[in-house]
Design a protein that fits this description.
Layout: E1 2-6, E2 10-11, H1 18-36, E3 40-48, H2 52-61, H3 65-82, E4 89-92, H4 96-111, E5 115-125, E6 130-132, E7 152-161, H5 167-176, E8 181-182, H6 184-195, E9 201-202, E10 204-206, E11 223-225, H7 227-232, H8 234-238, H9 245-251, E12 256-260, H10 264-279, E13 287-290, E14 293-295, E15 298-299, H11 311-322, H12 326-340, E16 347-348, H13 351-381, H14 396-411, H15 415-436, H16 438-444, H17 447-468, H18 473-482, E17 522-523, E18 530-531, H19 535-542, H20 546-550, E19 554-564, E20 572-577, E21 582-587, H21 595-598, E22 602-606, E23 612-614, E24 617-619, E25 622-623, E26 625-626, E27 636-637, E28 649-650
Parallel strand pairs: 1-3, 1-12, 2-3, 3-4, 8-13, 12-13, 14-16
Antiparallel strand pairs: 5-6, 5-7, 7-9, 10-11, 14-15, 17-18, 19-20, 19-22, 19-28, 20-21, 22-25, 23-24, 26-27
Helix pairs in contact: 2-3, 5-6, 6-10, 11-12, 12-13, 12-15, 13-15, 13-17, 14-15, 14-17, 15-17, 16-17, 17-18
This protein binds zinc ion.
C-alpha cells in the first residue's frame, strides 16, 4: 500500500521552533510506522518562500530574497536532520518544478472557468498574507487573534478564484466523508466557515517575487500567484505533477495533510479542496489539525512577539542536565512532544517537562528495564540467551495489546494514547522482572526458570524497541545493538511475534540507555556553598536548621472542589479552603484519586510555596502526600489523624 503524508511547507520568515518541530515529528512518526508496516511511503516537507514579507526581511538583511530564502531553508534542513525527520522530499517553492506545477495548475483552473479578472481593493495583513474584508477587521486591525496587527490598503487589477462556487460541493464532501477533517471540532469550524458564505479569493499580486501567472492567461503581465495558492500546489508537485504521470497516479491523492490549527479552516480544509475540484483532481483523503504549544500559558505563534524555544537549546539543556548523547536528547524531545500533547488540543511546553518525562518514563521505565535485564544475562548466562521459550502469559498478551492499541491510536493520530499503551506494557515487563526475581532464581539454582525468565525479559525488550521505533528511532536502534541484533531488519509485525531472539544470541555491550548524571553542583542550605562531594553533599543537604524549617508554613486545609486538568493524565486541579481563604492547587495525584473522592477531605498544605503555572493553571500551594517510589498509582495524601479546624498550623 502507498502512504503519502505531508507537513505544511514552512514559511521562511521564521526558523523552526518546538511548535513546527511537533508537526514534523508527528508526520515522521507516522511515516516511520507505515514504512515498518511495509507501506510505500512518500513523506514530504519543505519551505514556502514567496511571501511578500520575505522581500522586506531580505531587504533588512541586505541580501536578495532568494539568498535570504536559501539561508532559512538550509536552517530547516539542518534542524530536521538533527531531529531525525526522515522526509523523502524537501520542496522549496522557488524550485523550477514548483514553477511548472503552479503554472499548469492555474492554466487548468482558468480553462475550467474558475479564474476571472477583477479589481482588488481592500485590506491586506502582510504577516498573515491574508486579504480581509472591511467587516472582518477588528478596530481596524487584523482579526486573527494570534496577530491583531495593523492592515494595509491595497488596490490593483487581480485575478480571482471562484471559491464561492464550491461551498455546496465542499459541504457535501464533508458530509459524505465523516473522517475527512479531524479532529471533529475543527471540522465543525470548517463547516461554519463554509455556511457563513465563501467569498471569491484574490489569487494574484502585482509583484516580482513569486511565480508569474502563466502568459497564456490574458492580462497576466506583472502578476504573480498569491503565496497561499502557490504553496498549496506543492502537495501536487511532490507527487510528480505535472511532469511524472506515473508517479502522480501512484501517490495522488495524498493520504494525510497534517498542520497546525491556524492554517486549517481557511486554507487546507476549504480553499485547497475547492482548487482541486476546479482542476478536476481527487481530494486528499484526510486532513488533520493540531493545536499550539503554549509556553507558561503564552501561545506560540509566528505572528506574536513571544519567541517559542528553538529545538536546539532544549536539546542542549537535556544533554547538560542528564549527560545523555544528542541522539538520546532528540528522542526525549520527540517522545515528550507526542506524549504530552493531546493531538488537536493545545499543550504547554517546558524544558522541565522534557526532563521530567526523560527521568520518569525514559530512564526509569524504558531504560531501567534494559539496564537491569542485560547485566543479569551477562552475569548469570555469560552474556548469551538460551533456547527460545514459549510465549510468557505474563508478557506476550500485554505486548500484543500495546501493538494493537498503537495501531488503533496511530490511525486517528492519537500519539499520546499510543505511547500510554506502550508504557502500560513496559510497566508489565518491569513488574514481571520484579515478580520473577531472576536474582533469587540464580541463588536457588533454578536454571530452567532462570533461562525462561531472562529469555522472556529479553523478548519484552526487543518488542519494546519495535514499538517505540516510530517515535524514537535512534533509541530503538541502540536497544537492538545492546541486544546484539546487528543488521536486524525491523518490521512492525515483529512487535506481534514471540521468540524471535535466536538461541545462543550474544548480547551486546550494556550501556545506560538514558543516563542520569548526579546533580553536579548543589548549593547546600546550611552553607550556601557549592558542594561537589557527591554522597557527603546529599547527607549535608538533608540537614535543615529549625529556623529554616520554620519558614515553611504548613496548614490544614479542606478540599472544596477537584477536577482533572485537561491534557494532563496525572494532574488534578483542586480548590482548597485553608481557613477563610481558598487556594487553587495543581496536584499530581490523578492516578491515585478520583476527583469526587477528594471533596471534603482534609489535607496538609504548604501555604507559602511560590506560585507556579502548571498546564496553564496557576497553582498556589502544594498538598503533602507520600508514595512508593516509582509507582504513581500508590500516592497517599497526608492528613491529620483527627479532623482539625481549617487553617490549623502543622509543625
Ligand atoms: Zn494578521
Amino acid at each position: 500500500m502507498k502512504f503519502y503524508i505531508t507537513t505544511p511547507i514552512y514559511y521562511v520568515n521564521a526558523v523552526a521552533t518546538v511548535g513546527t518541530a511537533y508537526t514534523s515529528i508527528a508526520c515522521d512518526t507516522l511515516a516511520r510506522y507505515r514504512r515498518l508496516r511495509g507501506d510505500d511511503v512518500l513523506f514530504t516537507t519543505g519551505t514556502d518562500e514567496h511571501a511578500v514579507r520575505v522581500l522586506r526581511l531580505a531587504e533588512e538583511a541586505g541580501v536578495d530574497p532568494k539568498t535570504y530564502a536559501d539561508r532559512v531553508a538550509a536552517q530547516f534542513v539542518e534542524d530536521w536532520r538533527r531531529l531525525n525527520i526522515s522526509y523523502d522530499d524537501f520542496i522549496r517553492t522557488t524550485e523550477p518544478r514548483q514553477h511548472r506545477a503552479v503554472q499548469r495548475f492555474f492554466e487548468t483552473i482558468y480553462q475550467n472557468g474558475d479564474l476571472y479578472l477583477g479589481s482588488y481593493e481592500g485590506w491586506y495583513c502582510v504577516p498573515d498574507e491574508t486579504f480581509l474584508a472591511e467587516t472582518e477587521l477588528i478596530n481596524g486591525r487584523c482579526p486573527n487573534p494570534e496577530c491583531g496587527r495593523p492592515v494595509e490598503w491595497v488596490s490593483e487589477p487581480a485575478y480571482f478564484f471562484r471559491f464561492s462556487n464550491y461551498g455546496d460541493r465542499l459541504l457535501a464532501h464533508i458530509a459524505a466523508n465523516p473522517d475527512w477533517l479531524i479532529p471533529e471540532f475543527r471540522k465543525n469550524e470548517a463547516v461554519s466557515f463554509i455556511r457563513g458564505g465563501l467569498r471569491d479569493v484574490c489569487v494574484t499580486r502585482r509583484s516580482t517575487w513569486g511565480i508569474p501567472l502563466p502568459p497564456s492567461i490574458p492580462d497576466s503581465e506583472g502578476l504573480v500567484i498569491y503565496v497561499w495558492a502557490d504553496a498549496l500546489v506543492n502537495y501536487l508537485t511532490c507527487a510528480g505533477y505535472p511532469d511524472d504521470a506515473e508517479e502522480f497516479a501512484k501517490f495522488w491523492p495524498a493520504d494525510l495533510h497534517v498542520m497546525a490549527k491556524d492554517i486549517f479552516t481557511r486554507f487546507h480544509a476549504t480553499m485547497w479542496p475547492a482548487m482541486l475540484m476546479s482542476a478536476g483532481l481527487p481530494l486528499p483523503k484526510q486532513m488533520a489539525a493540531h493545536g499550539y504549544w503554549t509556553v507558561a500559558g503564552e501561545k506560540i505563534s509566528k505572528s506574536r512577539s513571544v519567541q517559542p524555544p528553538r529545538p536546539e537549546p532544549v536539546l542542549e539543556r537535556v544533554m547538560a542536565e542528564t549527560g545523555c548523547t544528542q541522539e538520546r536528547a532528540v528522542d526525549a524531545l520527540r517522545y515528550y512532544e507526542l506524549r504530552e500533547m493531546t493531538f488537536g488540543q493545545d499543550g504547554d511546553f517546558s524544558v522541565e517537562g522534557v526532563l521530567r518525562r526523560y527521568a520518569d518514563d525514559l530512564a526509569n521505565d524504558l531504560g531501567n528495564l534494559l539496564n537491569r535485564v542485560l547485566p543479569m544475562i551477562a552475569r548469570y548466562r555469560q552474556g548469551r540467551l538460551t533456547q527460545p521459550c514459549p510465549p510468557d502469559p505474563a508478557l506476550h498478551p500485554a505486548a500484543q495489546q500495546a501493538a494493537a492499541d498503537w495501531e488503533r491510536c496511530a490511525d486517528v493520530l492519537d500519539f499520546r494514547g499510543g505511547l500510554e499503551a506502550i508504557w502500560v506494557f513496559l510497566a508489565a515487563a518491569n513488574r514481571y522482572v520484579d515478580q520473577q526475581a531472576p536474582w533469587a532464581l540464580a541463588k536457588a539454582g533454578d536454571n530452567e526458570a532462570l533461562d525462561r525468565v531472562l529469555y522472556s525479559a529479553a523478548e519484552a525488550i526487543r518488542i519494546a524497541a519495535c514499538l517505540v521505533a516510530p517515535v524514537m528511532p535512534d533509541t530503538a536502534d541502540e536497544i537492538e545493538r545492546q541486544l546484539g541484533l546487528i543488521g536486524w531488519e525491523r518490521t512492525w509485525q515483529q512487535a506481534w511475534q514471540w521468540g524471535l531472539l535466536p538461541a545462543g544470541q550474544a548480547i551486546g555491550q550494556a550501556r545506560p540507555l538514558f543516563p542520569r548524571t548526579e546533580p553536579r553542583k548543589v548549593a547546600t542550605a546550611a552553607t550556601g556553598k557549592a558542594d561537589k562531594t557527591g554522597e557527603g553533599a546529599s547527607k549535608e543537604r538533608a540537614m535543615v536548621s529549625f529556623n529554616e524549617f520554620k519558614k515553611i508554613e504548613l496548614r490544614v486545609g479542606e478540599v472544596v472542589s477537584a477536577e482533572p486538568v485537561p491534557g494532563a493524565d496525572k494532574l488534578l486541579k483542586l480548590v482548597v479552603d485553608i481557613g477563610g481563604e481558598q487556594r487553587t492547587m495543581v496536584a499530581g495525584i490523578a492516578l491515585s484519586y478520583q476527583p469526587q473522592e477528594l471533596v471534603g477531605k482534609q489535607v496538609v498544605v504548604v501555604a507559602n510555596l511560590e506560585p507556579a503555572t502548571i498546564r496553564g493553571v496557576r497553582s498556589e500551594g502544594m498538598i503533602l502526600a507520600g508514595w512508593v517510589k516509582g509507582d504513581d498509582k500508590s500516592i497517599s495524601i497526608v492528613a491529620p489523624d483527627r479532623p482539625l479546624p481549617k487553617g490549623s498550623t502543622v509543625s
